[in-house]
Amino acid sequence: MAKIIAIATDDFEDSELISPKEALENVGHTVDVxxxxxxxxxxxxxxxxxxTTKGIDDAKLADYDALLIPGGFSPDKLRIDERxxxxxxxxxESDKPVFTICHGPxxxxxxxxxxxxxxxxxxxVQPDLKYAGAxxxxxxxxxxxxxxxxxxxTPKDLPAFNxxxxxxxAK
Length: 171
Known about the structure:
Helix content is about 30%, strand content about 25%. The protein has helices spanning about 15-25, 75-80, 80-95, 105-110, 125-130, 160-170; strands at about 5, 30-35, 40-45, 50, 55, 65-70, 100, 120, 135, 140-145, 150. Strands 5-2-1-6-7-11-10 form a seven-stranded mixed sheet, sandwiched between helices. Strands 3-4 form a two-stranded antiparallel ribbon.
């Protein structure tokens, strides 16, 4: 089974971390929640508390099979920290899947490779991605096979998003 790293900090969109995490774990995958330090409680926009598994300095591409980036205000906070940007870029340039929803793709803008991506995001983030050169589509789930990138727009898309990420890891 796969080992997935989920990068998040305070003010993540609760359902966009919890729902995919539970879906992945329910089929036998492992999900590590990573933030600045290990064993820290991070809190979602709606009060959900999650304890981090590892700190970002201990998270390495080689240790994981896929990356999950939930939305909320978390991605905007993380994108000012080069450690998260570098890890995200490394995943996008690898042959490993990247799963993101809602505001999660904001993190891609700092990677310098947004112009190579096909994806979707929350309505207000879509123009930012277009200005950064991305091929943006407005659909429940967008799959960029070249970068093994699966993206969705909002919590309403979670059932389709979760099904797509489970299917991708089954290959």
